[in-house]
Write a structure and sequence with these properties.
The protein is mostly helical. It folds into 2 domains: about 15-50; about 60-94, no CATH class. Helix content is about 55%, strand content about 0%. It is built from 4 helices and no strands. The radius of gyration is 23 Å and the shape is elongated. The protein starts with 15 loop residues before the first helix and ends with a helix. The model has no long low-confidence stretch (mean pLDDT about 90).
Length: about 90
Amino acid sequence: MSTTATTESISAKLRKDEKDRFTMTCEEIGTSPSNAIRMFVSAFNRRGGFPFDPSNPYGFSADTLAAMDDAVTGRNLSGPYDSVKEALAALDEE
């Protein structure tokens, strides 16, 4: 009696640059593209959806996302400062 589960193929269309980067990253971390896809599918099925928030794939906190948005839009910034002493003094005032 065999304990090996049968497997099925899955196919996806990728741009060449995406496929090349994916393959290179898999090699760098010591796995194959097929194994990486199997791990993703397993995590996806266990969670019942994406194993990460697609709108925030790096898992930044709300504070970090707000600070990043402030930096891009130029809001809630301080400085520039002419010296480290001036910058530290501004931090002490907050």
